[in-house]
Amino acid sequence: MDLYKEPKTEVQKEYIQFSQKYFNTPVPQMDTIVINNFFRDWGHQFIHDEKSLRFLLEQAGFQKIDRRHVNESPFPELARLEQHYKEIGEEFNILESIVVEAQK
Questions:
Q1: pTM for this entry
Q2: 74 and 91: one domain?
Q3: How many CB atoms lie within 10 A of CB 52?
Q4: N or C: which end of the chain has fewer CB atoms below 10 A?
Q5: Total domains present in the chain
C-alpha cells in the first residue's frame, strides 16, 4: 500500500512503469490502477498489512509475532524461502511483500 503514498520513491516509480507489461491494453501509469490490477489478476481475496496479520495470528493463538525483512529470519530453515524475486527482482519483491513470523 506504500505504492499509493506521495512522493514516490524511484523504486515505486520504476515499479509502476514495470507493471505495464501485465496489462493487455495501454493504461495510465497510476498507482491506483496498478494496485487494483495486481490485486484482482492473481485471485487475491484480501490485502493484508502488519496490523491485520497480527490480529489474525493472535486470534489463532500465536504469540511472539515479529515483522521480518524479506528473506531474513533467525531460523535458517525459514530464511530465503521467498522466491518471487527471481521473476520481478529483489527491489520490487521487497516493495510488494510483507513477512511476519509467529510462534505457537
A1: 0.82
A2: yes
A3: 12
A4: C
A5: 2
Residues 31-42: tens digit of each pLDDT: 999 998 888 888
**Whole-angstrom Cα distance, residue 79 to residue 28?**
37
Structural domain boundaries, residue 66 = 48-104
Q: Nearest-CA neighbor of 13 among 25, 29, 27? A: 29
Is residue 57 domain-shared with residue 97, that is, in the same domain?
yes
Q: How many CA atoms lie within 13 A of 21 on its CB side?
A: 5
Distance CA 21, CA 66 (A): 34
Q: Give the HSE-up count for residue 54: Cα atoms under 13 Å, Cβ half-sphere.
A: 8
Distances (CA, A) of 97 to 3, 27, 103: 12, 24, 20
Listed residue (59, 79, 83) closest to 68, CA to CA: 79
Q: What is the pLDDT of residues 3-41, one digit of tens each?
A: 999 999 999 999 999 999 988 888 999 999 999 888 888
Q: Give CA–CA dist 92/1, Å, rounded.
A: 13
